[in-house]
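Checklist before submission:
- one chain only
- standard amino acids only
- sequence pasted in full

Submission:
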Amino acid sequence: MAYYSTAKIKELREENYRVRSLVLDCQVNAKPGQFVMVWLPRFDEKPMCVVNEDPLTISVAKVGPFTEKLFELKQGERLSFRGPYGNSFTLPEGAKKILLVGGGYGVAALNFLAKEAKSKGIETTMIVAARSKQDVILEKEFFDKGAKVFVSTDDGSAGFKGRAHQLAEKLFEEGNKFDCVYAVGPEKMMEAVARLCVEKKFPCQVSLERYMGCGVGLCGKCDAGGKIVCGDGPIVSGEQAFQLSEFGKTHRDTMGHKHNW
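Returned file contents:
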């Protein structure tokens, strides 16, 4: 049974021209990598990653009708949600150094993990990848958490010119060793990072993304070719990801139909 909570929006933060963070006046018992199902009555419901658990914060990219409606909400208005759901990122026992790789608005999903790593005294390196300088988000957030931050942009307008996995490979070639690598973003980006980690023998975890109907493993709409993302994930190891028939090859539409990338 779904139990909804409702909270006031106490702060709106503009991260860039199309990404906004909503800070609610509540907290949730969540772990890094989990998500909540955000509900707009009489309209729709969508999964949103937990960017921070106390206070509950979600980051929204204006990419469709549902997120456009979220952008219409004002400070002081109420928002309903259920969850958190899904499994979470795990930090290896005794980990001393980790690498986070975020692409596009997937960067936001790693903010919570950086916070937990800092609380455990783990040295964190963060790659913030975007198409161009105007698309970069949360760079300062990761600096404030003590992370060493590198920016990569496809057009070279900020930081390293190239893709996220290319910058990760550069860090590896410079002799950097990591106890685990975490990637969130477009699936082709995560595939490239995971493949690189398998080659370099670095443990890796990625966050799968599919359209979700229920969020609790019942409807099957978010099948990823071997795992139900909301029920079995969204977090899987790089090795597990490559066992999925769809990873990096196909994606699904709102009805669950498969399409090639």
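Reviewer check: The chain is about 20% helix and 35% strand.
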